[in-house]
Amino acid sequence: LVLVLLLTPKDAVGCSWYSIMLGAVVEWSGGTCKIVALPWIIELFQNAAGDASAAGWWAVILLLILMFIDKEFRARPTKILDGLSKAGVTISTLFLMFMAVTVIDVCLNFTGLAKFVAVDVLAFLNSFNISASSAGFQLFALFLTMLLAVLLGMGMPAVPAYINVALFMGPMLVGLGLATFTAHMFIFYFAVASAITPPVALAAFAASSITHADPMKTGFSAVKSGVVMFTIPFVFAVYPELLLIDKAVIDPSSGHFLSGYDGSINFGWLVFLMARLGSALYLVSSALAAFDRKALGPVEIAIRLAIAVLILARPMEFYGPAIAAGIAVVGLHIFRSRGGAPT
What we know:
Number of helices: 17
Radius of gyration: 25 Å
Distance between the termini: 48 Å
Low-confidence stretches: none
Strand content: under 5%
Strand order of the largest sheet: 1-2
Shape: globular
């Protein structure tokens, strides 16, 4: 229901075949559709289409109805009131967080600290004598943004951590040519990842209190297990088409599509890109675990990590040989591991 409401344009509702079947009155002139009258159910759907808040509202209504399928819930329908009261407490807590973030935002805007941080980061990157228009410069900027997101996110919920880092580093990433939506998604991913990143990993500490394990070891294990979370943001920063929306490929300076994009989806290229991403994640995961069919040595770990990076590179001169090298490395590993139990 949420996806249908979010992905349906308001203009497409009244002129659709199901609207006409339900009694919608439309006029066609010169190939364009003009809505004359809509039945109340279609008008209700049109008002909710393309609206995130309305989609969430109707999803809650549908969920409340579906809950009555459970006989235990039917026996105690007052659970709805319990859930609504807890939701109110949660929303109140979020508003308090936003109030605190608003104070920080006002201070940053008043002092201009965010601008100074961005200037200092750019000066640090320029000290390496790398062209600001090069992919390496952007990669360094993304890496520093990741570190800042993890550091500022320590001990904080994801939303305030994201807002803080977006205020500091968002304008700089946009200035380097990333689409505004892509830059903010990159920051948000690492704001969420800060919950499992030592030394202050709130999620890891909560999990260790349940399992009675060492919090730091739990945090490092979580980082290894969640390596996908640390890899994917860099991938969609390089390949924003993975986000599947036009805003991810819009040049923030001109308002037009980024070079090489026209707003359409090339499904063949997308499938090929997803296959490369899956292969790279497999190589990274096995390298960090130091195990595939059997234990991996330091040299093979380094080779797998290098191949994973090259597989995701943009130039075909890099990812083409890297794919062949990855197949060779994995094939050789499988060949060597045959005939004996994994060690």
